[in-house]
Amino acid sequence: MSERELEKMFRLAVKAAGGCAYKFVSPGMSGVPDRLVVLPDNRIGFVELKAPGKKSRPEQCYQQRRLENMGCYVAVLDDPDMIEQIIREIREYGIADEDVLGDIRKVGGMI
């Protein structure tokens, strides 16, 4: 399966989940992930797509770590069997943190 075919499958699955998988291009900054995924309820993640068995280039690894260090969800997708799991992970990413923040807000705490 080619990267292009995998990307099409992923876009369609994200759309079926009620979201959008925007092509992410950042002029002047190489190595950013291929897709910026936005799902309902403010669920956002970055996904790098690769042909099966292919690995991220060093500049892609750098950008992936950079985004992860800022608290973003980042995944590398090279297997069509992982599509649903990645969508599920984006949906669930950070929910525990939000529960804690919601509890702080309920008691009038500052964030």
- Per DSSP, the total helix count is 4
Radius of gyration: 16 Å
- Roughly what fraction of the amino acids lie in strands? 15-25%
Which strand order do you get reading across the main beta sheet? 1-2-3-4
Q: Shape from CA axes?
A: globular
Class inferred from helices and paired strands: alpha+beta
Distance between the ends: 46 Å
Main sheet makeup: 4 strands, mixed
Quantity of strands, as a count: 4
* Percent helix: 40-55%
Q: Give the H and E element order.
A: HEEEHEHH
Mean pLDDT: 89
Describe the structure.
- The protein has 111 residues and is an alpha+beta fold.
- The protein has four helices and four strands, in the order αβββαβαα.
- It has helices spanning 3-16, 58-69, 83-92, 95-106, and strands at 20-23, 35-39, 43-49, 73-77.
- Strands 1-2-3-4 form a four-stranded mixed β-sheet, with helices on both faces.
- Strand 2 and strand 3 (43-49) form a beta hairpin.
- The longest helix has 14 residues, at 3-16.
- The N and C termini lie far apart (46 Å).
